[in-house]
Amino acid sequence: MRLILATSLWARLTGLLIKSRCANGEVLLLAPCRSIHSFGMRGLLDLAFLDAEARVLLSKRNLPPARTCSHPSAVAVIERRSNPQCPWPAVGETLQLQASTITPEQKGDTA
C-alpha cells in the first residue's frame, strides 16, 4: 500500500477531509500524532496508532464520522478510508514504512 506522509500542521489537521488525498487507496501517516477526529468525514475510517518503532498500539476499523480516538503512547497514526476487503495491521504488528511527502503545493486542495 502507498503511504502519504502528513507532518505539517495543515496536513495533519485536514487529514482525509481533502477528497483528493489518498483517493486511490493510499494510507495517510500523521506524525507526530496521538489523537484523531472524524468530524466532517462522510465515511468510515480505519486507524492504527503507532509507537516510535512503528509497532501497532491500537487498531480500529470502521470508525464512524463525528468521533475521536487516541492512544497516549502513540507517536503517529496511519489512517485510510475504510476498506473491509483490504487487510489492516493488528495490535502488536510492526510496520516497515516508506513515505511520500505532502508538498506545500497540495495545500490548495479542497474538501
Describe this structure as you would to a colleague.
Helices cover 5% and strands 32% of the residues. The relative contact order is 0.29. Helix 1 links the parallel strand 1 and strand 2 (27-30). The longest helix is centred in the N-terminal third of the chain and has 6 residues, at 9-14. The protein is built from one helix and eight strands. It has one helix spanning 9-14, and strands spanning 3-6, 27-30, 35-37, 45-50, 56-63, 68-70, 76-81, 100-101. It has one domain (3-86): Protein of unknown function DUF192 (Jelly Rolls), CATH 2.60.120.1140. The chain has 111 residues and is mainly β.
User: In DSSP terms, counting alpha (H) and pi (I) runs of 4 or more, how many helices?
Assistant: 1
Task: Give the termini distance in whole angstroms.
Answer: 23 Å
N-to-C order of helices and strands: EHEEEEEEE
- Spans of at least 5 consecutive residues whose pLDDT stays below 50 are 103-111
- In total, the number of strands is 8
Strand numbers in spatial order across the main sheet: 5-4-7-2-1-8
Would you identify the CATH H-level superfamily? Protein of unknown function DUF192
What would the principal axes of the Cα set say about the shape? globular
Which CATH architecture is right? Sandwich
